[in-house]
Please model this.
Amino acid sequence: MHKIVKIVLIVLGAIGAILWFQLPDKNVPVGEAVENGAMNFMFIITYLLLAIAVLFSLVFALKNLFSNPESLKKSLFVIIGFALVVILSYALSNGADGTVEAMASRNVATTESVVKNIGAGLNVFFILVIIAVVAMAWGGIKKMSNK
Model:
């Protein structure tokens, strides 16, 4: 398996090098450069490699997760905690705060549900930042008290 992966990576590297030399010159207009086949194939290779990396990362992470029941239990607690943070954030967000009218005055079409979703995302971010800061502070305090 390791030899097959090496061969595939060498072939993809060679294809990428060939495509690199077929990229358009910097003097080519942008509209024409975007239509270049070499650039499109390089993006396809990039997306393919990204998909393979994500797939293998997920497979090995799930394999390790299910091989140890204790880590599965901890992961389940983390997932449930994150779901609770998302639900709390969505409940705290408000779409009727005048943002829709302000965006309409700037010719940006939006709805209350979009504003509510953005607010929920910001709330999730802020809550997770607070949790991370508290966890780091708690760890530091605990480490200092053990010495």
